[in-house]
Amino acid sequence: MRVMMAVVLVLAAGCTPVELRSPPAGAPVAIEGDSISYATGPCFGTCPVYTVTVHADGSGTFEGQRFTAVTGSRAFRVTSDEYRRFAAALAPYRPDGERRVDMDSPDCGPAPTDMPSVDVNWAMASGGAGHLHFYHGCRVGNAAMAEALRDAPKLLPIADLIGER
């Protein structure tokens, strides 16, 4: 009888409801792993417009929108070394939170119009995040950043998806 009561208590414990709550507003939420999303904006001309997202686990997605060899979504893989190189190339420009370098920001300087832009979003497994918006017309004083942002996609196996520039 004692064994039967012990079994009943164990089974009953499994039926105890667990309260599911959303984390408090502003609290970090764990995600599957680190990821970087790189999205180009349009220009006055035929600049490729696409979004590429890569995850530390090696999965990636390319979404061609305009003036790319491939339109629509395509999955691809990166090696851990390719992911690390891509992340390292962008790391010096990762803000804590949000940073915009565009014609309305004080760190732009005189800028031509009709240039493309890029948005980079970092999402960390720890819950940290960052977003950089950079207008490529803001090269004065930002040449190293402009070059790093322009060259970063070359570190990923997506050249055939982007196409000729």
TrEMBL record:
InterPro entries reported for this sequence: DUF6438
Domain DUF6438 per the UniProt entry, residue ranges: 35-139
Protein's UniProt name: DUF6438 domain-containing protein
Domain of life, source organism: Bacteria
